[in-house]
Amino acid sequence: MALILILVLTPDLRTSLMVDFYHEFLANIRIVLPDPVKPIIGTVKQQFSGGLVLNEDGRWGRNSTTTPQYVGLPSVAIDNAWLDLLSAAQIVVSGDEAQSIKSETVEEREGRKYRLSLGVHYALHCVDLVRKAIDFDHYYPTGKTPYFYRDHVDDCIDYIRQSIQCQGDLTPITYYRRGPDIFPASGATHTCRNFDELNMWALERRALHLP
Prior knowledge:
- The chain is of the alpha+beta class.
- The protein has a domain at about 60-205.
- The protein is about 40% helix and about 15% strand.
- The chain has helices spanning about 1-5, 10-30, 75-85, 120-135, 135-140, 150-165, 195-205, and strands spanning about 45, 50-55, 60, 90-95, 115, 175-180, 180-185, 190-195.
- The strands form four sheets. It has a two-stranded antiparallel ribbon with strand order 1-8. Strands 2-3 form a two-stranded antiparallel sheet.
- A hairpin with a 2-residue loop joins strand 6 (about 175-180) and strand 7 (about 180-185).
- Helix 4 packs across helix 6 (about 150-165).
- The chain is globular and about 65 Å long.
- The relative contact order is 0.15.
- Keywords: Signal.
- Pathway: Mycotoxin biosynthesis.
- Belongs to the ustYa family.
- InterPro entries: UstYa-like.
């Protein structure tokens, strides 16, 4: 509305107001420097695993032939796979790598080092939390949880939702027919950031203690 009003004013007044608007815009805009990890991480073509398959007994089940497994009934192997996946959930950066975030995060006790998590690791933490909530009785056999447990789970679900919408993956998911029904062929090939490279970068900066 403000811009529409400016356009119908006299040229001199219009110019003056546009200059004021431009200066106010520059004063309030927040310049965010590139994340230091982005320039060194490549992309890969990655075929997704999983998907529903028709088993020999005629029942539908999940294709679970990939390793390691991250889902399924609770097991030590699955828990260890998640621990490994999240081993760089918190990292510490310093120097040039910290320039874009040092005023917005926690400074380490020794000074001039700063703690953060990459969004991908925080989202994985959230998936792990929701995974454990599905098998609540196994992971919380006493039924005792922090008073904010439900809020934590809800917040993680909402973070995952926002992360998915933010990424806006446009990979086509095709369908196939079995009898009268159709099912998504979720094992499509996606263009992904190279998680192995990304995770190695994070592991080299892994936080060794909680703040």
